[in-house]
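Subject: Predicted fold for DUF2637 domain-containing protein, 302 residues

User T.R. writes:
Posting the sequence so we have a shared reference for the thread.
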Amino acid sequence: MSEPNEPDQPEPDTSEVDKGQTRRVRKLGDRISEARHLRGLIRDPDLQAVEMERSGRRTLVGLWFFLSLGLVFTTAGVQRFLAGKTTMAEPLWWAAWTVEPMFAGLLIVLLNFEAVILSHGIKPDHEWWSRLKHVLLASTMAMNVIPQIMPLATGRWEAFNLGSAAVHAIIPVIVYGIAEVIPVIQARQRQVILAAYEAADTTTAASPPAPEAPPEPPKPPDPAVGTAPVERPTAEIPKAISKGPKLPPPMAQAVQSAYARAQSEGREFTADDIHAVIKVAPDLADQIAASYTQPTNGHAIA
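User M.O. replies:
I've generated the structure tokens; pasting them so everyone works from the same file.
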């Protein structure tokens, strides 16, 4: 007894597997396409400028943040040195808080201007430029360190803290260093951007212009158009043609043109010239040629 036919099961679609278009392959293909597009963009000077601005902005934000923390610490040290034993009721106690921000502000203003001129390849070559920066650093450091070493001068060794003295000496140096580095970063950032644009301009100027396409040569006349050939001045056609074999007007015109060409070329008109323009029997071609070449009393030879 034969078994009943089972219903046909749909075969799995293996087209994607056969082609190898797996999910991983498609993902890698997308990455390759993206990298191919990015390859041209990476060399774009505008993109380089944007990336440099973004990277420099992140760096400067971090430096300014830590510079602010350092200034808070040094400001407290300077205020403590200047205020001494005064209280909050006295103006000197409040005024002492403004000294360190003033020193730091002067230093930052000088260094920012230095960054601008450095980006154009100019250095502030003046003796007081360096002296003023050194005076600001030395003043901040002295006002932070002197209160820490005063116990040593008065013989109170137990009140001296070596760690606190070291921190009060190092942090002003770090603050000064950060203030020096910030304008240098700004200057180098500007130089990189200008160098990228200059390289792009040089490449554009050095690239030769595209050669102009040579003028197209004149095209020969298309034979299919049926352009009439230039004919030389035709010789006078003898009246024998009117007495020769009667031909249809188109054929008679073609024979007359063939005879004129033969005459202009200075050769004998033969049956071959007739066969070249019309299709007739050889005897008739000979008779037509004879009517042109051997006329007698105005009548063609029969």
